[in-house]
Design brief:
By secondary structure, this protein is α/β, with parallel strands linked by helices. 44% of the residues lie in helices and 14% in strands. Bound molecules: (6S)-5,6,7,8-tetrahydrofolate. (6S)-5,6,7,8-tetrahydrofolate binds next to β4.
Amino acid sequence: MLIISERLNALFKSVGNALDEKDKNALQQLTQEQVKLGANILDVNIGPGRDDPADDLTWMVETIQEVTDTQLCIDTPDMTAMEAALNVVKGKVLINSTTAEAHKMEKLFPLAAKHNADIIALTMDEKGIPNDAASRGEMALTMITNAMGYGVPTENIFLDPLVLPVGAAQDQCPKVLEALDMFSTLCDPAPKTVVGLSNVSNNTKQRPLLNRTYLVMLMAHGLDAAIMDPGDRDLVDALKSSEILLNKKLYAHDFLKI
Ligand code: THG
């Protein structure tokens, strides 16, 4: 399971402030902390409502890459900012994200091909997020087929069934699990999968408990990567013990202390 740190996101006040002040030190300290906590990839997100998204995002990418070689996941709906970030980023990159909307696919798949990037494909289109697993599967297939046409191989795609808050769309929680089952049947080799885990507990009083319970369920349905908080050690312990119980990692007597 790949841990994609959610913390380098200007939604968080400390990151928003660092971005406003162009405080390199604050962002670099947080970056190093996330890497130390075991993040395999860092999701970089400037949040909504910035005056110059391209400038902000390239500043974040360059500042972060001054202190780590850890892979970045560039998380923005702004196409200009995405392109600017891809032009400065070093090493393998994960694009976050396209949807099944034609105008997004025809820009983002060529960019993924050009930069040999991995890309997250959200199963939604101009009409929104479908409310059943089969329609998510259909949309996933549309994106996989479209990607092939642009020379983006299925191995470079992470399908995201879109996790919604349990308080607002409770019926969608099991449907996301069903969607993961469906994705695994779409092609061979199966496309990889990712979710934004903390979405599930938005506006609830039991965020850590809901996050870790849902992560275990998602992993049992084959999840490959999660955008999550590696600073939540109970969550990371749940992840590690799930890997053992799903026979993905060899059992060791002291596995939680590694
Ligand atoms: N799929 C993909 N990308 C994504 C998401 C997804 N990127 C964004 C998001 N969803 C995943 N990242 C976060 C980051 C933060 C929070 C939730 C998801 C979060 N933040 C606190 C809040 O809003 O309450 C911030 C408050 C604070 O502590 O300061 O919950 O689904 N592909």
